Amino acid sequence: MLEPLNPPTANAKGTASIEDNKVVNALDPELIGDLAKPVYPPNALAGHAGRCIVFVTITISTAGEVSEVIPSWQRLNIPNRYSNDFLEAVRAATRKWKFKPARNVYWEKDPSGDLKYKGTEIVPARIDIKFTFEASGTVR
Description:
mainly beta
């Protein structure tokens, strides 16, 4: 149904950035439940719009909800007379998605070199996703 185009921009799972005696582990958002699929827009299906690929950037809020869905700047969306209908179908589906929000986990090195937990910050994340609406009315 969907294909991430690249890792979330707010963080990259398992990576750590180190600055002096501080370490930050950036953890990606984690899906809770299933991903609702978009529905092929009925008027586009009736109008024989055919296959349509939609690239979007979703923002996952600190509450773990999809707070924004916009056309992606990473990939070109080929406009057609039903472009807004396809985008609205994606928005309707992604609004149902729930996540454990992205987090930054902060550590500090003590004089012996051991890491000491300092705290966790919940952060928004952005992910680019590709949806393919097939002429048959299915979506992947």
